[in-house]
Amino acid sequence: MGPLGVWEMVFLFVLALLILGPRKLPELGRSIGKGMAEFRRASNELRSTFEREMSTLEQEKQSLHTEMAQVTAATSDYTYPGTSDYTYDDYSSSYDSTSSDSAPQAAESNPAPTSDNPGESPINTEKTESEVKS
Q: How confident is residue 20, by pLDDT bands cut at 50, 70 and 90?
């Protein structure tokens, strides 16, 4: 439903004149006009407050972006103490992948000494000649 046309306005005016009479109609018109003016004033105030707050938020956003850029620039140039000359390539040449393969073979060729007695140390299980004779 769109805005009122000319004939609708004439009909409403005649109806209001018949219902309210010629004395009350001007008072009603004034009070409606005052209400509409107050509504416009309040809506304009709300709009300006909203726009002011939005511009404040935009300014804060811009200042945060500026500060973030400054912090990023300051931290990207920072070198940590003691790590500027450190290279990780030093360890790549000293690592030998074949040394781990030979360790199990060495362990198989020299089995660990065992002891028949649980309380005896497995380190020195060979008996000397004097122990064998006794």
A: confident
